[in-house]
Design a protein that fits this description.
Helices cover about 15% and strands about 45% of the residues. The chain is mainly beta. The protein has 2 domains: about 140 residues, no CATH class; about 170 residues, Chondroitinase Ac, Chain A, domain 3, CATH 2.60.220. Strands 1, 2, 7, 8, 9, 10, 13, 14 and 17 form a 9-stranded antiparallel sheet that branches. A 5-stranded antiparallel sheet has the order 3-4-12-16-15, with no helix packed on it. A 5-stranded antiparallel sheet has the order 21-20-25-26-28. Strand 5 and strand 6 form a beta hairpin. The longest helix is centred in the first third of the chain and has 14 residues. It starts with a strand and ends with a helix.
Length: about 325
C-alpha cells in the first residue's frame, strides 16, 4: 500500500517563488508608518480573515490513501504517526471505498498558533478561559469527492513529546470548538465523557480520538500570584473584526493566550476573566492585515493590576507570514 504526503504550499511552485521574493524585498520595516501624518486604512474583516485562512492552508498537509486499505499509518512532517482504520470511514452512515484525501494540521509553536488563530485557551468550569500549555494541536478531516467523511472507530496519534519540550504527565486530551467569530476554545475531555483518551508511553503521547476535528494535548498554566484583568487598546480604526491581540508568556514556549473579548464602547480588547498574573513578564502582540501581508507590533510588558496598554499604528511594521512566525518563535 502506498500513501503520499504533499504540502499544499509546495504544490504551488509559483506561489512559493512569489512569497520568497516578498521575503527578500520586504525590509521588515514601515517607513510610511513613522513619518508625521501617516494614515493607514484598516483592512476589512474579510481581508483579515483571508490572511488567516492562507496561513492555515500553508500549515495543512495532504495525505491520499484508499479506503479499502484497512488499518494504515501516515507520518507527518514533524514525525507524528497518524493511525486510521480506513474501513471505518463513512458518509451519511454508509461505508465508503476508493480514494480518500486526509487534511491534517499540526501546530506546536506559538508563531503558527497566532497566524492560524489557534491559541491555547481552555474553558474553565465557570465558563471563563485560561491559558493552556500544549503538547500539540491537531486537526484532521477526511474527504471523498468533496464530501466530508466520518469515522466509526476513531483514530490514534503518536506524538513525540520532544516536539514540546519533553514529556509532561499532567497533560490531558481536549476538543476544540470554534465559535461564530472564528475563535477556538478548548474543552477538556473529562472521564472519557466525550470519548477518546490520552496516555504516555516512553517519550510519546498517545492520543485516542473518537472523531475528526480539532484535538489538543494540554494542561492549564499554573501561577500562584494574584491575578488581574488586562485591557489593550488597538490603534484607531481597529477592532475585533479586523485585528487581534495575543499574549505570549515569557518562559512558556508551547502556549499562546488570546484577548478574545472586545468592548466597543471603550475600544479595548480584554480576556475579562481576570486570569493574568500580576508581575508576569510577557509580550503583547497586535496583528492585522495590510495589502495581503501582516501588520504587527510586539511589545514587552510586565503586568500590573488593572493595566490598560495602548498600541499606536506608528509602532507597527509590515512583514510576511514567515517573518512574523520567526519573530514569535524567538520570543523568550
Amino acid at each position: 500500500m502506498t500513501t503520499s504526503l504533499l504540502s499544499k504550499t509546495s504544490r504551488n511552485v509559483i506561489g512559493v517563488i512569489a512569497m520568497t521574493a516578498i521575503l527578500f524585498t520586504n525590509c521588515e520595516s514601515n517607513d510610511d508608518a513613522t513619518h508625521e501624518g501617516f494614515v493607514e486604512t484598516p483592512p476589512t474583516a474579510q481581508e483579515f480573515e483571508n490572511i488567516r485562512a492562507i496561513a492555515l492552508d500553508n500549515h495543512t498537509q495532504i495525505f491520499n490513501f484508499n479506503a479499502d486499505d484497512g488499518y494504515i499509518t501516515l507520518t507527518s512532517e514533524k514525525g507524528v504517526d497518524i493511525q486510521i482504520n480506513a474501513n471505518c470511514l463513512s458518509h451519511n452512515g454508509n461505508p465508503v471505498s476508493g480514494d480518500v484525501t486526509l487534511e491534517y494540521v499540526e501546530i506546536f509553536e506559538k508563531g503558527n498558533m497566532l497566524t492560524t488563530n489557534k491559541p491555547t485557551m481552555g474553558r474553565l468550569p465557570d465558563g471563563g478561559k485560561a491559558l493552556l500549555i500544549t503538547g500539540g494541536e491537531f486537526y484532521l478531516e477526511a474527504r471523498q469527492n468533496g464530501n466530508i467523511l466520518e469515522t466509526t472507530c476513531g483514530y490514534q496519534l503518536v506524538v513525540p513529546s520532544d516536539l514540546t519540550n519533553g514529556p509532561d504527565q499532567g497533560m490531558t486530551l481536549w476538543n476544540g470548538v470554534i465559535d461564530d467569530n472564528g475563535n477556538l476554545t478548548w474543552d477538556e475531555i473529562v472521564d472519557d465523557a466525550a470519548g477518546g483518551g490520552l496516555f504516555m508511553e516512553d517519550t510519546s503521547y498517545y492520543v485516542l480520538a473518537e472523531g475528526f476535528g480539532w484535538t489538543n494535548i494540554d494542561r492549564f498554566y499554573s501561577d500562584p500570584r494574584p491575578k488581574t484583568q488586562l485591557q489593550v487598546q488597538p490603534p484607531i480604526g481597529y477592532n475585533d473584526e479586523n485585528s487581534d491581540v495575543y499574549l505570549s508568556y515569557d518562559g512558556e514556549r508551547p502556549a499562546l493566550a488570546q484577548l478574545d473579548t472586545f468592548d466597543d464602547s471603550l475600544n479595548v480588547f480584554s480576556e475579562h476573566y481576570g486570569q493574568i498574573p500580576i508581575g508576569l513578564e510577557c509580550h503583547l502582540i497586535f496583528v492585522t492585515e495590510s495589502n495581503g501581508q501582516w501588520r504587527y507590533a510586539i511589545k514587552p510588558v510586565t503586568i500590573v493590576a488593572n493595566d490598560i496598554i495602548t498600541f499606536d499604528i506608528e509602532e507597527t511594521i509590515v512583514g510576511t507570514e514567515e517573518s512574523l512566525i520567526d519573530l514569535l518563535n524567538e520570543l523568550p
